[in-house]
Design a protein that fits this description.
- InterPro entries: RHH_8, Ribbon_hlx_hlx.
- This is CopG family transcriptional regulator.
- By secondary structure, the protein is α/β, with parallel strands linked by helices.
- It folds into 2 domains: about 35 residues; about 70 residues, no CATH class.
- It contains 6 helices and 3 strands; from the N terminus they run αααβαβαβα.
- A 3-stranded parallel sheet has the order 1-2-3, covered by helices on one side.
- α4 crosses α5.
- The longest helix is centred in the middle third of the chain and has 15 residues.
- It is elongated and about 60 Å long.
- It starts with about 20 loop residues before the first helix and ends in a 6-residue tail after the last helix.
- The N terminus is likely disordered.
């Protein structure tokens, strides 16, 4: 199964929302005003990357222990049809992004996917997500 092929329109990032106290936000703005960062997002991304680097060993160990696939993995209708024909049931475990093609029916997803565990983002049609709701961990 070729799970590395990505649809061209797929985003490589997800938007998140955070709440900061006013003093923290003021300090962020001060650092931006002083030219340390180009904007608030730049500071927040840098801070997150620094924390991820600090905990890189724990991340690596956990990825190995949980047998997570790293990166972006796309499951096409053909991939799922091939799994069905082979009598295989998929255990999708991804750190990054997993996507299920828009032309995958809820019935095909239910017939081929036993479980989905994604740390990051799962992109699939709302019908497929609804059908697999009990299998998304």
């Amino acid at each position: 199964m070729n799970t590395r092929d990505l649809k061209p329109k797929m985003a490589e990032s997800e938007k998140i929302t955070i709440n900061l106290g006013l003093i923290d936000l003021g300090q962020v703005d001060l650092l931006v005003d002083e030219g340390f960062y180009s904007n608030r997002t730049d500071l927040i991304r840098t801070a997150i990357r620094n924390q991820l680097n600090t905990h890189a060993d724990v991340v690596r160990q956990t990825v190995a222990r949980k047998s997570l696939a790293l990166g972006m993995h796309h499951y096409s209708r053909g991939d799922l049809e091939a799994a069905l024909a082979a009598g295989e049931r998929l255990q999708i475990q991804v750190l990054g992004m997993a996507s299920i093609a828009d032309d995958v029916s809820p019935e095909l997803a239910l017939a081929t996917i036993d479980a989905i565990y994604v740390l990051g983002a799962l992109h699939a049609s709302s019908a497929v997500k609804t059908a697999l709701a009990g299998r998304i961990l």
